[in-house]
């Protein structure tokens, strides 16, 4: 039996980026977009073009580069937003404008300060304006999960008449439960006269831990697009997790009348890439992509799996990309092989200078590790991508002493604006001492809101990846560092965060866009 297509709409680069501290630069967004394209994601929401110049440029770069997925930009129901989105999407092989307006009584009264009639009028005008700029228009009823059904029917019918091809029904605040949300989708499909002229989509938040359950219930009720993110990344408690949606539908084909076109073997590599770039580690017991997702501790379980895998595993680890992404390169590998593997991974290294730096650091890493994995390469590039550019702070020397019963000390030499400076400091531990030594030189007056260490691969020779999140004056930046030495990785991460502050680059988070 032929199954209907379930459209997978990934919003990691837009809604996912609205997680505090998860801001990505253009090159990082492009790397993730290419990973999503390899996964065969149907629609990639690349950003909110009017939010900032950086967001506009990232959407444009992705639209100009990715050819196999539809590229989407979010836009409020305003002409200037829609025009900016259309401009960013001009080079797309397939582009979509996603415009939205709140429809719940609480949002209309307290946020929009509009009457229901005014909301419908504005929604229709926005959709018509978008259709004059692009063929593919999606309209979202923000906070649909708390909207009155009669009004939802009215505005959805009007938006479809105005030219919207996709209607998105978001549970913006994660308020719904599966049976209730399914009833909403089913009622809209039954009551809206022109419902057959649009694809109905859902975008669920995870405030009550029900985003995936609500999304799947909606699919069974007739929704044919699910908006989701890698690792469930997103505002507050996050969004519906792409990997869980895809594998639930694929594993339970006996219950779902749909299937996706996703290449599931790219799921784990994409998960690790997003985790590396954002600095948000994946919890070990996370479904599908967690380190323990296919691990069996119980002797009974181990015995059953050894005798017949299906006794305790409902899907294959290899099918979602575990154990399939090892690269066999070592210290004798050449530059051409190294470049080829980076290209396969969708890692852009535009200049020869960037390639030379990355290749040298690969050689240094290969001297320390017996095997180099794709995850190591992703971290290596994240750690060195800006090394060919001018950085204000660069690590030169780090020397740490730590002995039981004695206070740890760190001596550090960093290059600041071309001048080497040295400092020594003591601390509660070697990392604390290192950070205090750095601060004594730079005096940034930042506060640290996150320090996270994650092993990139298994084994005692694994690179450690450190994420440092700093705050100052309401601005939040993440710094990343990777090294087989955790203390060195920590210093690199701290300096990387300081360089982000020094660069002055920032992105305005459009909180109103939490659809």
From TrEMBL:
Quaternary structure, from the entry: Homodimer.
PANTHER family xref list:
2-ISOPROPYLMALATE SYNTHASE 1, CHLOROPLASTIC-RELATED, HOMOCITRATE SYNTHASE-RELATED
Similarity-based family: Belongs to the alpha-IPM synthase/homocitrate synthase family. LeuA type 1 subfamily.
Gene name linked to the record: leuA
Keyword Nucleotidyltransferase applies: no
Q: What is the lineage of its organism?
A: Bacteria, Pseudomonadati, Pseudomonadota, Gammaproteobacteria, Oceanospirillales
Source domain of life is Bacteria
Residues annotated as binding Mn(2+):
15, 203, 205, 239
This protein's name: 2-isopropylmalate synthase
- Which pathway features in its UniProt record? Amino-acid biosynthesis; L-leucine biosynthesis; L-leucine from 3-methyl-2-oxobutanoate: step 1/4
Which cofactor(s) are needed, names only?
Mn(2+)
Query: Which transformation does this protein catalyse, written as a reaction?
Result: 3-methyl-2-oxobutanoate + acetyl-CoA + H2O = (2S)-2-isopropylmalate + CoA + H(+)
Physiological role: Catalyzes the condensation of the acetyl group of acetyl-CoA with 3-methyl-2-oxobutanoate (2-ketoisovalerate) to form 3-carboxy-3-hydroxy-4-methylpentanoate (2-isopropylmalate).
What top-tier enzyme class does this entry carry? Answer: transferase
Q: Which PROSITE patterns match?
A: AIPM_HOMOCIT_SYNTH_1, AIPM_HOMOCIT_SYNTH_2, PYR_CT
Q: Which Pfam family, giving just one, matches this sequence?
A: HCS_D2
Region spans: Regulatory domain = 394-515
* NCBIfam families registered for this protein in UniProt: leuA_bact, PRK00915.1-3, PRK00915.1-4
- SUPFAM superfamilies according to UniProt: 2-isopropylmalate synthase LeuA, allosteric (dimerisation) domain (SSF110921), Aldolase (SSF51569)
What is this enzyme's EC?
Answer: 2.3.3.13
